[in-house]
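Ticket #4471: structure export looks truncated?
Reporter: QA, pipeline team
Priority: medium

Steps to reproduce: submit the single chain below to the structure queue and open the exported record.
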Amino acid sequence: MPSPDTNPYAAPREGPADIDTSPALDLEGIKNPRHLAYLSCFFYFMTVFGTWAVGKFFPHIATPRTHYLTYITLCLTTGILFLCWKYRAAWNARKIDPSQMPVTPGKAAGGYFIPLANFVIPYRAMRGIARVSLGKSADGLVIAWWALVVIRYIIPGYASLFVDRVFPIPGDPPLFILFGKIASTLSWILLATGISLVLRITRAQTPTTAPSHRMLNNPLIQRLD
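Actual output as written to the record:
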């Protein structure tokens, strides 16, 4: 029988059945990401729903300046909390199964700020976290989440760096209004997809998960507090 400190996710080794050659798990530093997940999801919801609700139901106080400052403040708060959550979830995943989590926790959080590489690194990090926590069945959800992030935020972010300078368009032409409506719709879809992904991973890395969950067989879960 394998010792309790061996990695239950390690691939079977060839050799006598009574010899365990799998690497020992380092249980130090594993922490529960639940609180960071809840806070980041709450502020993300407020970013999308709150800014929309203020403009929709309180137009008399939602001046362009107030609306912009509120949106930026919520975005920054959400971003910081999400990156802290992702760092912790990546740390846990890398401790559980490094072979499935090749991206370091630092790159998992900081990959968003590396030009061009931010099309790839954040996705690879989230895929690794999800595979360790949920198995390959979560690949579809990760792909959907990342596709929405790229379409909604990354591509428009790069485009905004030069579009206004190269193709200055005064006012609010109908095409821009249409793009605004599409972006709003994508934001709502991304909200549901992102929160679902974060909470599913968090439940998998939390000791209160149902006993049938695959990760509860991992001794790391017993050490989360």
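Status: closed, not a bug. The export was complete when the record was re-opened. Leaving a note from the reviewer for reference: The longest helix spans residues 64-96.
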